[in-house]
Amino acid sequence: MAERNPNLISPKAMEAIASTAGSGRELISEIFTKINNAKDKPKKIEVLRKHDTPGMRMLLKGAFDPKIVWELPEGTPPYIENEAPAGTEHTYLEVEARRLYNFAKGGNSTINKIRKETLFIQMLEGLHASEAKVLIDVKNKSLNKTYKGLTSDMVKEAFGWNTDFVKP
Predict the structure, then answer these.
(1) Using CB atoms within 10 A of its CB, is residue 158 exposed (0-12), middle (13-18) or buried (19+)?
(2) What is the pTM of this model?
(3) Which residue in 67, 70, 60, 68 sits closest to 153, CA to CA?
(4) Cα torsion at 143, 167, 91, 138 (round to 10°)?
C-alpha cells in the first residue's frame, strides 16, 4: 500500500468537510416560499414563527410598514444576478438585513443618493438570485404579490405587532 503524504488532509477530515458543504442555512426566499405553499393562515403563521429571526423581522417591517420609505428608485435596479448555487458563493439576506437602514429615509443621511444606489446594487449582486428578488420586492413594497398569504395583517398577527409594527 502506498504511503500517504502527511501534507494532505486526512480522508476522515475530507468526509467531515464534505458533510458540511454549503451552510445548511435556509434562504429567506425558501422560507417565504414555504409560507406561500402553506395551505391556510395558521400554517403560514406557524412557518413564520418557526423561522423568526431579527433579520427576517427587519425585512418584513421594511416591506409592510408604511412609515418606512426607501430612498431608492422604484422598480428593479440594473444589477448582475449572482448565479452561484444556494449555500455557496453568495451573501445571505438574513445577514445583510442589518445594513438596510442605509437605504431608508432617516436611516443614514451621510450617504448621498448615488452612493446609496451603488451600495444597494452591490448588495443585490452579492446575494443569491432568489434573495435579491426578495429584497427588490421588499423595497418596492410588493412582497405580498410574489408570496401569496404573506400580508401585513398575517405578519402583525404572527409577531404580536400593533399597527405601528411594534409589540405594544
Answers:
(1) buried
(2) 0.80
(3) 60
(4) 20
